[in-house]
Amino acid sequence: MRIGMIGLGKMGANMTERLLKGGHEVVAYDLHPDALKQAAAKGAETATSLKDLAGQLTAPKAAWLMLPAGHVTDDAVEELAGLFSKGDVIVDGGNSNYKDWMDLAAKVEKTGVGIVDAGTSGGVWGLTEGYCLMVGGTKEAVAVVEPALLTLAPEGGYAHVGPVGAGHFVKMVHNGIEYGLMQAYAEGFEIMGAANEFDLDLHEIASIWRYGSVVRSWLLDLAERALRPGAGFDDIKGVVVDSGEGRWTAQEAIDRGVAAPVISTSLFTRFASQHQDSLQLKMLAALRNQFGGHAVTLETGEQGLETETPAP
Questions:
Q1: Which residues contact 3 (CB under 8 A, 6 or more apart)?
Q2: Alpha carbons 116 and 270: distance in angstroms, whole number
Q3: Active-site amino acid positions
Q4: What is the pLDDT along the chain (312 residues), one digit of tens a residue?
């Protein structure tokens, strides 16, 4: 299919490349000229504006947004809705708040333009491993973009989970769970790191736990990478930013009367990380860098430790 990709950051650029490799035609748009040049080098067509992008698409037109949540995404959706026609589809693959997204979708859908929210997980590894896609929207709107969804996701990694807003809601809870899992690993490794009498090799332990252990997971694979000799773990400062979705998940638990002590505590630990430093917090910062390419703060105060690009 022919699809527009708006936002060529770490996620959008890799998604563009994966779509191109899957045989799709992509019209890419970003405010940064260098990002457009890199997309063009991969085989994408490029646009100079949202209007230009809309003009290069064919009916039913489809555009996928990978932009920061909030007014940046909202403004782009509203502008595109004015450029699109009935039956065209706009997909938001970012981390928008599901309540805000549902309000915006209700306005846009009055124009006949389809709205889809695609909760997207996979981080910087999605290009090679595929993206888990949690999709909300009408059957008709989802059907328009399903060829792209099937290319972006690995086999078994895509589901139409419900109506508009359901995709963002499920992704929000997904990220809340992620907070808790990361916190458990971080606490465990700090306990072992404090057992000075055993002089434990934390990298070796992370490595063996990946085989046969009941706690093996992709996050543990990333922990092993972060702890490798020379990976720069000791240079990380244990400052961990919360991206918003863990906070939203904790609030949903409160509003719905659901006990969620692990997710809530992991969120509060991130708040506390602004004022202290420990191996536990270094681990959380390193894991965020490993799966999402999120910048870490080094002991020098500088930003650094970019995630190694996965091998093809």
A1: 19, 24, 25, 26, 27, 57, 62, 63, 64, 145, 148
A2: 31
A3: 171, 178
A4: 999 999 999 999 999 999 999 999 999 999 999 999 999 999 999 999 999 999 999 999 999 999 999 999 999 999 999 999 999 999 999 999 999 999 999 999 999 999 999 999 998 899 999 999 999 999 999 999 999 999 999 999 999 999 999 999 999 999 999 999 999 999 999 999 999 999 999 999 999 999 999 999 999 999 999 999 999 999 888 888 887 899 999 999 999 999 999 999 999 998 888 777 788 888 888 898 888 777 777 765 555 544 444 433
- Residues 190 and 106: their CA atoms lie apart, in Å, by 47
CB of 57 closer than 8 Å to CB of 4: yes
Nearest Cα to 158, choosing from 142, 141, 181, 179?
A: 142
For residue 14, CA distances in Å to 122, 170, 210 come to 11, 23, 27
Q: Are 235 and 286 in contact (CB under 8 A)?
A: no
Are the CB atoms for 45 and 34 separated by under 8 Å? no
Tell me how far apart the alpha carbons of residues 82 and 111 are, in angstroms, rounded to a whole number: 8
What is the rounded distance in angstroms from the CA atom of residue 78 to the CA atom of residue 56? 18
With 0-12 CB in 10 A as exposed, 13-18 as middle and 19+ as buried, what is 173? buried
Q: Which amino acid is at 188?
A: G
